Amino acid sequence: MEAMEFFRLSEGRWQSQRTTHHLLLRRSEIGQTEILVEVLAVEYPKVVEICHLHQIDASLVIGGCQVSWKGSMAWDNQSDAHEGSTVFVLVPDGSDAQQGKLLRERGYAESVPVVGRYQVDGEGLILTTEYETMSSVERFCFLNDNVRLRTNTVKQFGGFSAASFCTERRIIDGETDDISDNLTSQFLEFTPLGW
């Protein structure tokens, strides 16, 4: 699988069930998020704009993706907002489309423009991002066309601070958003692939 193929397979609406382990607090928190993924062509204005933002030649781009999300976590205060949108732009390392730069207008762990790395490892897609005060590693893989898994670790100076595991299920047109029972039963049938 190539990185753009992964984004094409991810296109659509997803319901994500997340468990975040706060390692310093030795506690876990659960939450839900609805995610919308849209693939963007190389000539899409926002893709070109992000290339200019990061001073990257837009002719090197193989594609992009816009991701929007809205969700909640168990420990939220009224002022907490787990919603937003960002655009990813893929710039391969020369002729190797399996890895390269990942340009973002907004990062995962910090809401700033950032250049990370992407790599396809055979069964999934790995996104690695170094920020000024922390780093993030995120891995996605598909169980089937409509179920995918996502893991994430966030490391701040001094050690790991959080690790998350998400099970995500595609929302099919006409289906209600309350799909947690189906998601759980599909997850229980899954045999982990080296996790």
Automatic annotation (TrEMBL):
One GO term of the biological process aspect: protein-tetrapyrrole linkage
Annotated Gene3D superfamilies: 2.40.128.20
CDD domains, A to Z: lipocalin_CpcS-CpeS (cd19433)
Domain of life: Bacteria
UniProt xrefs under Pfam families: CpeS (PF09367)
InterPro entries: Calycin, CpcS/CpeS
Annotated EC: 4.-.-.-
Keywords attached to this entry: Lyase
Family according to the record: Belongs to the CpcS/CpeS biliprotein lyase family.
Protein name as it appears in the record: Chromophore lyase CpcS/CpeS
